[in-house]
Amino acid sequence: MPLADLFQAIGRRVNNGIWRLGYAARFFLTMLGRSGIAFSRFSLTVKEIYFTGVLSLIVIVVSGLFVGMVLALQGYNTLQRYGSSEALGVLVALSLVRELGPVVSGLLFASRAGSAVTAEIGLMKATEQLSAMEMMAVNPIARVVAPRFWGGVIAMPLLAALFSATGILGGYLIGVILIGVDEGAFWSQMQSMVDFREDIVNGVIKSLVFGVLVSLIAVFEGYDAVPTAEGVSNATTRTVVTSSLVILFADFILTALMFRGS
Amino acid sequence: MPPEDFVAITGLSFAYPGGRQILDRLEMRIAPGQVVAIMGSSGHGKTTILRLIGGQLRPQRGAVRVAGQVVHELNTRELYRLRRKMGMLFQFGALFTDLSVFENVAFPMREHTALPEALIRDLVLMKLHAVGLRGAAQLMPNELSGGMARRVALARTIALDPRLIMYDEPFTGLDPISLSVIGQLIRRLNDALGASSIIVTHDVISSLKIVDYVYFVSEGKIAAQGTPQEILDSDIPFVRQFVKAEPDGPVPFHYPARDYREELLGPHAAR
């Protein structure tokens, strides 16, 4: 009965997926309840902001610069056909602030910092460090998980802002310095067309949501990892894959909600 | 008035969800000041006993009493309060790899006390001195040998002067000198702190030198128990096989399998 087997396999997968989602939701609520230490001893969170944020700076800045430069090249190529090459600044800025900044930095954040957080927590579990903490009457969710989660949530919007800023700088270097688009038009059009509430704040909200999602996936996968070398490796892979898909899905939903009328 | 036994295990049964029975109506008692060894083959539930005592697992039947409290009936807050009276040394130390030796030992003090930094420093150095590693305070865990890591973990275990110290395979993978050092430290620290200690181990020779009482666990039950001398003199086949390190006996050499002849010559054999 291959058809029955197929349905059974699909049912099992769906069932497992729902169960895991519920488990993740309970984990999230437990972590929120145990997050006091992440703020009362803020130095723990600052340390994680350093590991997830500061150590991701290079990859964010370099990627942002190149994305901005490519945007300027492609944008100029299209805009000049319609005689509106002076709108290059607006195109670069809006693309980055609304979309590419949060999304690309979210993807980079997942692969650079999210994977590192998962691997670290997973290895702590595999080497019994979390069990040792429990036996010392220290809750690992409060002491290890919550500071890493909040560190990621705080770092992500800052990284996205930096990505957008360096992207605009890259667009300026290519558009104005290399191609020769008028500098005044580049900046003034950008200033007049980019709306603080509609564009920048919504971009920040997106990056904040991505920060929550990626950080949650990273700490959950690490904490839930099978405590073996293979288990940690699988958990790290799942963090990157799941985070990437969730970012793109959430981006679609958020874009549909935010920019409906504009 | 304190209870007579610091740890009392009565009718303890445990199985992992969907798995086989690990412990079956186990009975065990550990008096204050006593050092007790739990021995037995791998996979027969020795470490599970430690996890049940520490409240990391819940039994299906029976109870573990520590300092008069039934561990699985405690809520999280009460369990954490009880754990402050316990210390556990994990098989490979489980040191926090992002913290120095000093910070590892200071960790429980920083988490559970509001002691001034100068006092924490003195206490940490005293604990490290007790295990002979005061000079290694600023090293990172990846700079330590296996024996040193185990000693640092021991210093961390006794950081808050626990009343019960549990050791999970403390002798595994150590050279003869480190093995002797760890063995002596376990006994000395137990006596100095007036604590009770439980050692889960395979190492008959090292542990019989330092313990007061031995429990042999097999198939989830107590197969034998007694003082080290009683164990050495025992004529129970299981104990004799263990003490004399015989490869075959009541603990079979072969993992359960199909008949050897049938497997080689049966219908699925290579032609």
Question: Your description of this structure?
Answer:
- The complex is a heterodimer of chains A (262) and B (271).
- Chain A has one domain.
- Chain A is 86% helix and 0% strand.
- Chain A is built from 10 helices and no strands.
- The model of chain A has no long low-confidence stretch (mean pLDDT 93).
- Chain B has 271 residues and is of the alpha/beta class.
- Chain B has one domain (7-94, 162-265): P-loop containing nucleotide triphosphate hydrolases (Rossmann fold, 3-Layer(aba) Sandwich), CATH 3.40.50.300.
- Chain B is 36% helix and 21% strand.
- Chain B has helices at 46-53, 76-83, 101-112, 117-130, 146-157, 176-193, 204-210, 228-233, 237-243, 260-265, and strands at 7-15, 21-30, 35-39, 61-66, 69-70, 86-89, 164-168, 196-200, 213-218, 221-226.
- In chain B, the strands form 2 sheets. In chain B, strands 6-7-8-3-9-10 form a 6-stranded mixed beta sheet, sandwiched between helices. In chain B, strands 2-1-4-5 form a 4-stranded antiparallel beta sheet, with helices on one face.
- In chain B, strand 7 (164-168), helix 6 (176-193) and strand 8 (196-200) form a beta-alpha-beta unit.
- Chain B is globular.
- The mean pLDDT of chain B is 88.
What is the strand arrangement across the widest sheet of chain B?
6-7-8-3-9-10
Please give the count of helices of chain A: 10
Determine the fraction of residues in helical runs of chain A and give it as a percent range.
Answer: over 70%
The residue ranges of chain B in which pLDDT falls below 50 over 5 or more consecutive positions are: none
Chain pair sharing the greatest interface: A-B, 13 and 21 residues
Which descriptor suits the 3D outline of chain A?
Answer: globular
CATH homologous superfamily of chain B, by name? P-loop containing nucleotide triphosphate hydrolases
Helix content of chain B: 25-40%
State the domain count of chain A.
1
Summed over residues and divided by their number, the pLDDT of chain A gives a mean of 93
- The proportion of strand residues of chain B reads 15-25%
- How many β-strands of chain B, per DSSP? 10
Uncertain spans of chain A = none
What does the main sheet of chain B amount to?
A: 6 strands, mixed
N-to-C order of helices and strands of chain B: EEEHEEHEHHHEHEHEEHHH
**Oligomer kind:** heterodimer
CATH topology of chain B: Rossmann fold
Q: Which structural class do the helices and strands of chain B define?
A: alpha/beta
CATH secondary-structure class of chain B: Alpha Beta
Strand content of chain A: under 5%
Report how far the terminal alpha carbons of chain A are from each other: 54 Å
